[in-house]
Structures are given as C-alpha cells and as structure tokens.
Design goal:
Blueprint (H helix, E strand, L loop, with lengths): L4 E6 L2 E6 L10 H16 L5 E6 L3 E3 L4 H5 L6 H12 L1 H7 L5 E5 L2 E3 L1 H7 L3 E5 L3 E3 L13 H9 L1 H10 L3 E2 H7 L4 E3 L4 H15 L2 H14 L3 H16 L2 H14 L1
Helix pairs in contact: 1-4, 3-11, 5-6, 6-7
Length: 256
C-alpha cells in the first residue's frame, strides 16, 4: 500500500489520511487513484458506516503537487482534460455516488484543490489553526476538481468569486461564519471531538440516514457531471497557456 495515503476501517468508521506532511499533504495521481478505489470499496462495504478524511502534520491538503504538475506542462490540452476527468474528478463523482456520510477533519491549511476536497465532504470541522484559500490564480489556473461547483453552493456566488479572484486566506472562525465548516475546535481536542461526532453518526447510521443524504444530494447536486466536464475543458485550455507554465516554473524555482 502507498504510505502517502493511509486507509483504515475500525468499528464502522473509515479514515482516509493524507500522509505527505513534508509537502503539506499535496496529492499525486497515485494517491488519487488509491483514494478513488477506496471510496468505491466504502460504498459497497456494509461494515463502513461513515468516512472521515484528514491529513498528517500541520496541513490538511495543499492541493495537487505543483512539482508533478510542472512535469506535465508540455502535454496537449486533450491529455490534460482526460487526466483530470478520468483521475482527479473520480473523487467528487465517487463522493456524489456515496450515500454514507463523509466528514472532513480539517487539521490545518487547506488550499486550492485541498480546500475543494474538504468542500466535497458532507460535514466539515476545523481546528482553530486551520486556514482556507482558493489559490488557483497564483499559478494562473482554474479550479479543476469541482471547487467552482461546491463553493458557490455553500457561500453564494459573490463570496465564492471573491475568494477565487483574490486568493485570500480565511481563518477557521470566518470559515464557520461563512458555512464552510460546521464547527471549530481547539487544537488539543480537535481529533478527539471530530471522531466523537463521527462515531455518534456511526451509532445512528441506518438505511434512513443514507436515504436522507441521498435526497439532499439529489436536490442540491443535479448537474455535477456536466459542470465537471465543462471545467475540465477550461482546465485543459488554461494549462496550455504560457502564463500558467511560467507561473509553475517560477513557483518551483522559489522552493528550490
């Protein structure tokens, strides 16, 4: 098993833990593939009642690995679209197909696609030190994982545009006020409190609770596939631009 993403199932609670603390838990395609397969397993395994996602160290997830992105700058737009739609976008689609509750335990910084991964979850809880930002424009990119679908549905179109266009950070308390997270806990009790909530939901789990989630998602998420198909086209076009390639190269040089 790839130790950069760790899966466990204990007494009804499945945990997905991103485990690249040295890279702020930035995800790679290998991690995405393993995660998507695990979500399919969770959907069909009756022993799994609730899924929780979190990160190792001081970050939840900083999005896609920018160095890996730099290695793909010369790909054709169609290649970029296909890799996004066939790999990265498997995660929001798998979560949309999952009628079991999914909880994001945001243990630290969540930026770019890392923030979007949290937004895909049904319930989101943050440590007081957590910060959120939609940082795509730092590398002249568009949100390809579904953030432009999920964030407006949570905070409204105008606020979502502000967060995307400015890239500004939102602290945990502001995230709670905006509805990005359900609640905030002090760092020393964070994981204990989130796991307590998760296990409470496990205890209450039933066909009824799964149907409640399904009904709500069917009401709110009527056109996810169309949106993801559209945004993968935008993503493919933007990744072919010189300004994106230059921004990625500048970012990598600044970290060497």
């Amino acid at each position: 098993m790839n130790d950069e993403i760790i899966f466990s199932v204990d007494d009804g609670l499945a945990i997905v833990r991103l485990n690249r603390p040295e890279r702020m838990n930035a995800f790679t395609f290998t991690m995405i593939d393993a995660w998507a397969d695990f979500l399919v397993r969770c959907r069909t395994d009756d022993a799994v009642k609730v899924i929780m996602m979190t990160g190792t160290g001081n970050a939840f997830c900083s999005g896609g690995d920018i160095v890996e992105m730099g290695d793909r700058l010369d790909q054709e737009p169609l290649q970029r679209k296909e890799e996004l739609f066939e790999r990265v976008q498997r995660i929001p689609l798998a979560l949309a197909d999952l009628d079991k509750p999914v909880i994001a335990a945001v243990n630290g910084v969540a930026t770019g696609a890392g923030m979007d991964l949290a937004l895909m979850c049904d319930l989101r809880y943050a440590t007081r030190a957590a910060r959120f930002a939609e940082t795509y424009l730092r590398v002249k990119l568009v949100p390809g994982a579904g953030g432009s679908y999920f964030l407006p549905r949570i905070v409204g179109a105008a606020k979502a545009l502000e967060l995307f266009l400015t890239g500004k950070f939102v602290d945990a308390e502001e995230a709670k006020r905006l509805g990005i997270v359900n609640d905030v806990f002090d760092d020393d009790i964070f994981m204990t409190e989130v796991e307590r909530l998760a296990r409470h939901i496990v205890e209450k789990s039933s066909i009824g609770s799964r149907m409640i989630k399904r009904a709500i998602n069917q009401t709110l998420n009527q056109d996810l596939r169309t949106h993801l198909d559209m945004v993968s086209s935008h993503y493919a076009v933007v990744t072919a631009t010189q300004e994106h390639k230059a921004a990625v190269a500048d970012f990598i040089r600044s970290r060497v």
